[in-house]
């Protein structure tokens, strides 16, 4: 047996937090000893005792999950964040991805799927829904740039393969369809998506700095 | 001509009689009552800027009201005068005035007068440091306020009592009375701000006890109720307190997070005293981390604010405390000693001062509430008077016009009158229309708000519970004996289905999803997921819209549900091996277009006429749905398969 994946859970609703912990601890290859009811406790504790994967709720009392990720990610770039939402809250999920999360999952997903997703994220893969893909495309395209030439360099941040994947996902293709059309495995597609998220984070920071410096 | 003369006479005589009545009201007696009222109002208007002058007004009003036995004015004057006297430190006088007032009130049946008298005695006792007496008086006051049905004021009184208990270090009672205030406020409508302030107070008392967990808990609850645009003053204090709480529990990241928010807000709003506290707290954080260089700029910035305005004692204290730490940290013990001395000198007066400030805030809240009530009453009065006047004027006009018309034998006067009437009618109509429009607009806004509320509540409460049920039933499956597994599995399945349909409703309610290409992607993703779980093959043929097209939520929902039903039918009844989903927007040359969705299978087909009743129902539903959105849904079936053709003009 390999070393287990160490998971932390940040969730304010007791029922859900406890059920998730039971699930994770009951599965082979996963351990969860750190659960938190709010972002403030998590921020403090996870800074000192980082884990492999954090299941992070978005709506928390006080500081929300997105702000917590934004502060934690730079300190532990290897710690992966999976945002848990009840519904497809595209807007918030997208904010979280920009802040440093690399994955998201609906809480209603079946336990098997949840555990798969954690393992996949740990192995460097991420999923993406069509509406998130539309937002990611928009974010890379809609950056106001002073000149046409520069805008092209913005887009060049993504490799041609990544752009192909993003384009199909934004039209509602499933991961499997994308994989079939591009003759790669779904795992490879998810690894590309993981990289797109990483670039989105960097891109968001660069855009923010540019704005700050008055370059936009 | 004679008639016209009469008409004029008529006008004059009515005007005279009106004039007479109004002179009649200002008798010697009413001059005095008006004088009392005016003096009190004049005092109130300048009280915050010139307390001494205000006091003068109140005293005059008090004397006159007492002389002419004008009870209402007298008690109003007692209320304001006692408050003002206490403010300038003349509590002994305030006490004797309040005691006299109480005697007077006891001879009367008015509960309001008794309430005022006890209130004046309570404020005075609190000011004089006789806290037990203050509590007694407030308790009496609360009784009468309750009898008067003023629940909001009752809550303020409990707040006052809590603050006094806090001052006596009776923290259990302080919490209990804050809770009482909270309980009342929770029953009143549109009261989030007050509820938040009670929660905040309770948190603060826990803070005195060093119970930071509870303080954070209550303060965060308060924060949830506050609206950043409306309650910015309280939001700043909440952030600042949270910064303090997290610093006290060594959670510096969270502390910095909230303090930085507080700093931005207090600076933007020009809330200088809060800004000083925030800056001091930020400096304290850096000092805790032994980083004197990072702390210094904050203290310098705070000093700069303190130099331009006279800060309160507590702001000075929070600044001085950090100066002590800073000097110690830099090894400058001489300065540390000096700062410490200043700090200790201030300390004694501080505890009393902060509580007093708090009490004053509460009293002012209560007075503002009363003033609002009075203003509303006055406005209603004015409105009545104006209406009367308008009616009178109209009658005058009519009379005048009638006479004119008679004298001039119709003609111009009549035309003029008609014209006026028409204009008035038109104006009335316009006003009515405007009113209707406003009514419709506000109703729409209300509906939108209601939509958001419902989807939020579904999301927060229902959604969370359903998710927990789903998760727990999955866990239960592995733990219960084999016999119960199917039932538990069913529970899990049903809860998942419920969450899915809730998800779809929320998707359709959200206006951010109102785009045609978004709908296309949503339907495509749904079809892919749905069909991939069946033995069927799905072929997809899609063209996106080149332009941004907006589709309303209800139409999106109707189209989505129609497609969902069609796909469901294919899987259940068609006995097909392949299904094709085609979507394509067909733009009109001029404007708009038609959105085509075709769902075609290669199954056995069916004859619509021979269909069982229950299946026909499903088809009718699809058709009705599309009709509701102004579109169509037709079914073409042969032995080679069935096509459902959905059309929606946009």
From TrEMBL, chain A:
Residues 6-122 form the Response regulatory domain. The keyword DNA-binding applies. One of its GO terms (molecular function) is DNA binding. GO terms for biological process: phosphorelay signal transduction system; regulation of DNA-templated transcription. The modification 4-aspartylphosphate is found at residue 57. It comes from the Bacteria. Keywords: DNA-binding, Phosphoprotein. It holds the Pfam family GerE. InterPro entries: CheY-like_superfamily, NreC/VraR/RcsB-like_REC, Sig_transdc_resp-reg_C-effctor, Sig_transdc_resp-reg_receiver, Tscrpt_reg_LuxR_C, WalR-like. Residues 151-216 form the HTH luxR-type domain. PANTHER family: TWO-COMPONENT RESPONSE REGULATOR (PTHR43214). This is Response regulator transcription factor. It comes from Fibrella rubiginis.
TrEMBL record, chain B:
It comes from the Bacteria. TPR repeats lie at residues 236-269. Keywords: Coiled coil, Kinase, Membrane, TPR repeat, Transferase, Transmembrane, Transmembrane helix, Two-component regulatory system. CDD domains: HATPase_UhpB-NarQ-NarX-like. GO terms for molecular function: phosphorelay sensor kinase activity; protein dimerization activity. SUPFAM superfamilies: ATPase domain of HSP90 chaperone/DNA topoisomerase II/histidine kinase, TPR-like. Residues 352-388 form a coiled coil. GO terms for cellular component: membrane. This is Tetratricopeptide repeat protein. It comes from Fibrella rubiginis.
């Amino acid at each position: 047996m390999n070393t287990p994946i160490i998971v932390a859970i940040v969730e304010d609703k007791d029922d859900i937090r406890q059920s998730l912990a039971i699930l994770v601890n009951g599965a082979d290859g996963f351990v969860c000893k750190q659960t938190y009811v709010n972002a403030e406790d998590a921020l403090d504790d996870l800074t000192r005792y980082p884990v492999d994967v954090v299941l992070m709720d978005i709506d928390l009392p006080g500081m929300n999950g997105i702000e917590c990720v934004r502060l934690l990610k730079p300190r532990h770039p290897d710690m992966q964040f999976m945002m848990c939402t009840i519904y497809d809250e595209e807007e918030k999920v997208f904010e979280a991805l920009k802040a440093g999360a690399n994955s998201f999952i609906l809480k209603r997903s079946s336990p098997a799927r949840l555990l798969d997703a954690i393992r996949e994220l740990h192995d460097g893969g991420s999923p993406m829904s069509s509406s998130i893909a539309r937002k990611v495309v928009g974010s890379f395209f809609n950056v106001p740039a002073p000149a046409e030439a520069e805008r092209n360099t913005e887009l060049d941040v993504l490799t041609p393969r990544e752009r192909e994947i993003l384009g199909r996902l934004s039209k509602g293709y499933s991961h499997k369809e994308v994989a079939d059309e591009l003759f790669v495995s779904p795992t490879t597609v998810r690894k590309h998506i993981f990289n797109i998220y990483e670039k989105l984070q960097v891109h968001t920071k660069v855009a923010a700095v540019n704005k700050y410096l008055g370059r936009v | 001509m004679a008639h016209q003369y009469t008409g004029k006479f008529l006008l004059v005589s009515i005007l005279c009689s009106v004039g007479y009545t109004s002179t009649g009201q200002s008798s010697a007696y009413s001059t005095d009552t008006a004088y009392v009222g005016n003096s009190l109002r004049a005092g109130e208007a300048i009280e915050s800027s010139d307390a001494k002058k205000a006091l003068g007004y109140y005293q005059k009003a008090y004397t006159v009201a007492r002389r002419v036995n004008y009870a209402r004015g007298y008690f109003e004057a007692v209320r304001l005068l006692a408050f003002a006297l206490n403010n300038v430190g003349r509590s002994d006088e305030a006490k004797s005035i309040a005691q006299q007032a109480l005697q007077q009130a006891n001879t009367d049946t008015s509960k309001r007068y008794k309430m005022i008298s006890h209130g004046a005695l309570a404020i005075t006792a609190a000011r004089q440091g006789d806290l037990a007496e203050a509590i007694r008086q407030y308790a009496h006051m609360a009784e009468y306020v309750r009898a008067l049905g003023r629940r909001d004021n009752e809550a303020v009184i409990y707040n006052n009592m809590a603050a006094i208990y806090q001052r006596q270090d009776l923290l259990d009672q302080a919490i209990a009375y804050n809770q009482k205030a909270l309980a009342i406020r929770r029953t009143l409508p549109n009261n989030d701000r007050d509820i938040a302030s009670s929660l905040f107070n309770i948190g603060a008392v826990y803070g005195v006890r060093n119970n930071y967990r509870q303080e954070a808990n209550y303060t965060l609850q308060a924060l949830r109720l506050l609206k950043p645009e409306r309650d910015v003053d309280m939001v700043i204090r909440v952030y600042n307190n949270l910064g303090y709480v997290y610093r006290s529990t060594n959670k510096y990241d969270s502390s910095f997070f909230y303090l930085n928010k507080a700093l931005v807000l207090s600076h933007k709003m020009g809330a200088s005293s809060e800004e000083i506290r925030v800056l001091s707290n930020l400096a304290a954080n850096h000092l805790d981390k032994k980083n004197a260089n990072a702390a210094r700029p904050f203290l310098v910035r705070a000093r700069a604010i303190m130099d331009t305005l006279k800060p309160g004692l507590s702001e000075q204290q929070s600044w001085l405390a950090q100066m002590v730490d800073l000097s110690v940290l830099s090894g400058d013990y001489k300065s540390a000693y000096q700062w410490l001395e200043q700090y200790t000198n201030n300390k004694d007066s501080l505890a009393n001062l902060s509580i007093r400030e708090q009490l004053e805030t509460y009293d002012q809240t209560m007075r503002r509430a009363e003033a609002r009530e009075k203003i509303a009453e006055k406005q209603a009065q004015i409105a009545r008077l104006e209406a009367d006047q308008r009616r009178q004027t109209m009658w005058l006009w009519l009379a005048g016009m009638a006479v004119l018309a008679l004298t001039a034998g119709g003609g111009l006067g009549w035309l003029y009158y008609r014209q006026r009437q028409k204009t008035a009618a038109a104006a009335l109509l316009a006003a009515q229309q405007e009113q209707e429009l406003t009514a419709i607009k506000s109703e729409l806004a209300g509906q939108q708000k209601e939509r958001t509320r419902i989807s939020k509540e579904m999301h927060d409460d229902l959604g969370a519970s359903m998710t927990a049920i789903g998760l727990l039933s999955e866990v239960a499956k592995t733990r219960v004996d084999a016999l119960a597994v199917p039932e538990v599995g069913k529970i899990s399945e049903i809860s998942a289905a419920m969450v899915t349909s809730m998800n779809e409703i929320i998707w359709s309610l959200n206006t951010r999803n109102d785009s045609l290409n978004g709908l296309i992607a949503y339907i495509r993703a749904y079809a892919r997921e749905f069909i991939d779980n069946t033995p069927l093959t799905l072929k997809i043929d899609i063209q996106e819209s080149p332009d941004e097209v907006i589709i309303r939520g209800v139409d999106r929902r109707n189209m989505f549900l129609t497609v969902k039903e069609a796909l469901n039918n294919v899987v259940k009844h068609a006995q097909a091996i392949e299904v094709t989903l085609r979507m394509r927007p067909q733009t009109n040359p001029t404007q708009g277009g038609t959105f085509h969705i075709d769902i075609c299978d290669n199954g056995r087909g069916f004859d619509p006429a021979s269909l069982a009743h229950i299946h026909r129902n499903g088809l009718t539903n699809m058709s009705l749905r599309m009709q509701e959105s102004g579109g169509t849904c037709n079914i073409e079936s042969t032995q080679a398969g069935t096509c459902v053709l959905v059309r929606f003009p946009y």
